[in-house]
Amino acid sequence: MRSIKTFSKSLSTALVVLGLTAMPVLAATTALTSTSLTILAGTMSLTADPSASLASVTVSSSDQTTYTGTTTGNDASDISVTAADTRGEVTPSGWSVTATVARLTNGGVNIPVTNFSNNFSSVTAVSGSATGISAGSAGALVDTNADGTSDSFSVITASSTNGQGEYSLNMGLDLTVPAYQPAGTYSGSVDMSIS
């Protein structure tokens, strides 16, 4: 019995001397965590002033010009238009804001839409690059269908590969009021869309 104890003690001593004692298991020194991110596509959006008034005129024996804003032609108080593209396309496809204008009416009395002309300020890039972004061309409105609504015209355009960001401009409308146009309050509308 004594020889077994002596042998066991001698073996333990030998293992310690040889460094063969039980070693703790070491934890790994690196770790890998995979990550992912989903970016959801945004949309195109369009905002514009909800209303615009033309300066009042008095019945006259000659044609008169009135306008949105505070002066004829474009100014900062004209119709503010802002277009944005946050679709997140790898290669932007571009977009266009177009508008139509309806004739002004007062009961059964009208002012033809062809008496309107439009004008535009330069485009401001609120965010994004201004490259490839352009304002519409100023000119008299046309009513090809003679239905009281103008043909569609361009307000702001982003060419292909451009247009990611937010862009704004002011659109003015000038109106020729015919001589002896009956007095009253006339109303109409401007319809804009982005595509």
Q: What average pLDDT do the residues reach?
A: 88
Oligomerization category of the chains in this entry: single chain
Termini gap = 98 Å
Output the helix-strand order: HEEEEEEEEEEEEE
Shape: elongated
Number of H/I helices: 1
Determine the fraction of residues in helical runs and give it as a percent range.
under 10%
Q: How many beta-strand runs?
A: 13
Instruction: Provide the gyration radius in Å.
Output: 37 Å
Structural class: mainly beta
Biggest beta sheet attributes: 7 strands, antiparallel
User: Which blocks of ≥5 consecutive residues have pLDDT under 50?
Assistant: 11-18
Percent range for β-strand residues: 25-35%
| Domain unit count | 1
Explain what this protein looks like in three dimensions.
- With 195 residues, this protein is mainly β.
- The protein is built from one helix and 13 strands; from the N terminus they run H-E-E-E-E-E-E-E-E-E-E-E-E-E.
- The protein starts with a helix and ends with a strand.
